[in-house]
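W.,

You were right to be curious about this one. When I first looked at the sequence I had no strong expectations either way, so I just let the prediction run and decided to look at it fresh. Below is the sequence, 207 residues in total, followed by the output.
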Amino acid sequence: MACLVGYFGDFDLAEEATAEAFAIAAQRWPSDGTPDNPRAWLVTAARRRAIDRLRRDRVLAALLPAEPEAAGLLALMLLHDARRDARFAGEDLVLLADQDRSRWDWRQIAEGRALLDRALLDQARFDPGRPGPYAIQAAIASLQAESELDWPQIAVLYGKLADLTGSAVVRLNRAVAVAEAQGPAAALAIVHTAPERRFLQRRIAGC
């Protein structure tokens, strides 16, 4: 922590980053093994966490005064980044259902959810009943961090996002969520009626 205080000149930031580094070590070292130089590993990990926090604070300060959807974008970034460490095993992508949730940054998830709540409240003041696409994506990411996935609600959100964006990929994601919530027949009905049905059918065939 003394190294970080000297580097950043901020005792609170150094204390927080050091605690996070020890938490990461407690998760990883039992399975990965203790590094050759534990002190250097901890200092490096803590410095990275501190830099990440400073970057987020600067982005937050720049975006929040602009418009409600900016907070939705930042919430989405935080919620997605919180799963970064668990998203890959070596060079292989780890699917959401198979990720080690102990490697998720739960403090960052809480920050993202708080920003999402703020974005939705601000959006309700400016344009009631019409959240922006970033806020909807952040809401989906927040639901994906729950221990039990609420597939019906995720499907509803993907439906709203599809209406806003017209994206074929979003329609495919909605079809997957509907399949989880209602079964494959309901999902196939969406695929067959979608304007991009050939694209969606090719994507499903490749899954």
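Here's what jumped out at me. The longest strand covers residues 88-89. And, maybe more interesting for your project: The radius of gyration is 20 Å.

Coffee later to discuss?

I.
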